């Protein structure tokens, strides 16, 4: 369905060999492990339990191990997912059809004739069963001020919020943008959208007004929900001011609902509505909208290698089922557990493992408003101890930061409640893995390194669930989840079979949680994920399959970098910087950073006649990136150079710039295709004088 030419061009564009990725990410275990025969550390926890899957094992008693259930899920997907969908979800109308996929059009439908409401599945049915169980455990920025919201209270809040949205004229299928702190009202707002059939688009509250405006416009949102201010790590972020600046650029926005987080006085204009005021008079009953399984649940904008951030679209039943199944079986979630995922709700991890997965399973889920180091580097573990968390799911960058402060910050807090640790967002290097497992988990907790993406909706590869007695290898996600078939492809598009092989990490099966489209641009969806390796979903990552058949992630193969676990397109940073009137050209690459994972390195070429000094321009550029995108996108290094290494056809050779930024000028490789090979030496000389 795509021409051979298009495929080979796409493959060329995305292909960087795992070796070259490894060179730029040399400190990662995954890379080291397949360049040497180093013995990996295999840990066998005291007891590895396989959470029973009664839906499957009752009917098929011979299926007991993860491997056998996994095989069954791929061979009989209708049977497998049909059973789980019936037992795990409450349907308004039962489905007859499990899957309806058109690979030619990259159109995937799960349970297409079924109907269910996500808010009923996440709230009402648990409020019926155990109304007083805590649903949301809100760990506020200041330690010791936690608040609890029970399932009964959450149901009331969701209904009030749903009625407020209805009164504001929000209809089924309308997009509602959320720019909010991590607080119960934000979760209620997400679920209220689901209740009335509206589509939420949560924008991380650290994004700039520009970034918010472009997301609101792309989604055509008419309603924005925000708060007066957010507080994080003792610092106040003036959310409402950012929203005001964004809304000024968004003619579609009719109304802004403003929640109170700090109670600060904020400017209220004609479009602004005080949320607390309207909530207090709203009814606590709001009949759930009848939702088709394939109606959109939410959009979440994420960075790609080219163009502006894309609105990754997820639908109702398949997404919820996948979030629920993975939350249960990857984390071995059991009734009564207190599940702690410290991600912000503005990221997919917050959607799937703070909100939808845990609530679908009737869990008590943590809402963590603070940072890893506020008020001190023991905050995470003090929270674990005070709240009795059984699970702790976080990002490798936070662990790398915390381990530098020493073990004492961990050891002084009681962590005996913990049973399962997890990590997501970037490769978990050996040092951080051992620290997390040995120091935080006392060597007795399971540690699950989970690989997945905004587009996959839920966890795809992770060590658990494992066969009884199976081991966990340090620093790799290892085993595909149910329904997931990892496939490695070589640059020509051929599938690479066997063990001890690497390639582009693709998925050869379609699972219920897969994103259905990029909002408003299905062609981009096909071109990005399905055109590069026809018949497969391409993740953008590279992977290695080791001698045991387990998967290691080697890193991105495209122009996406991963800064503190946040995906960032180099093109986005370049676009922001080229807005500066004195900049003529820019090229942005990632380079290894001991804490952030990767940091941003910008090479810039200035115009001939300058009015400002170089220092001022560099300072302006940092401000520009902060205001156009977000703080985390600001380059650690900005290097002014007289030109960029380009091919004769004018393509910037980023491969060379990556080596320079990584401090490896001796490994530049072939530079003969450059229009002007001397520019490379000039750039290396400038780098050397500055380092
Ligand atoms: C959930 C999430 C996705 C990208 C992904 C990959 C990187 C995520 C990882 C990992 C190595 C892991 N990534 N988990 N790399 N090991 N366990 O992070 O989604 O923000 O869309 O990022 O993050 O590069 O492609 P998202």
UniProtKB/TrEMBL annotation:
InterPro entries: Ac_CoA_lig (IPR011904), ACAS_N (IPR032387), AMP-bd_C (IPR025110), AMP-bd_C_sf (IPR045851), AMP-binding_CS (IPR020845), AMP-dep_synth/lig_dom (IPR000873), ANL_N_sf (IPR042099)
CDD domains per the UniProt record, alphabetical: ACS
Record keyword ATP-binding present: yes
One Gene Ontology CC term in the entry: mitochondrion
Catalyzed reaction equations: acetate + ATP + CoA = acetyl-CoA + AMP + diphosphate
Keywords for the protein's UniProt record, in alphabetical order: ATP-binding, Ligase, Nucleotide-binding
A Gene Ontology BP annotation from the UniProt entry: acetyl-CoA biosynthetic process from acetate
Domain AMP-binding enzyme C-terminal: 572-651
A molecular function GO annotation: ATP binding
Domain Acetyl-coenzyme A synthetase N-terminal intervals: 67-122
EC number(s) per entry: 6.2.1.1
UniProt domain AMP-dependent synthetase/ligase: residue ranges: 124-509
One Pfam short name: AMP-binding
PANTHER family: ACETYL-COENZYME A SYNTHETASE, ACETYL-COENZYME A SYNTHETASE 1
Family, similarity comment: Belongs to the ATP-dependent AMP-binding enzyme family.
NCBIfam families cross-referenced by the UniProt entry: Ac_CoA_lig_AcsA, PRK00174.1
Record's protein name: Acetyl-coenzyme A synthetase
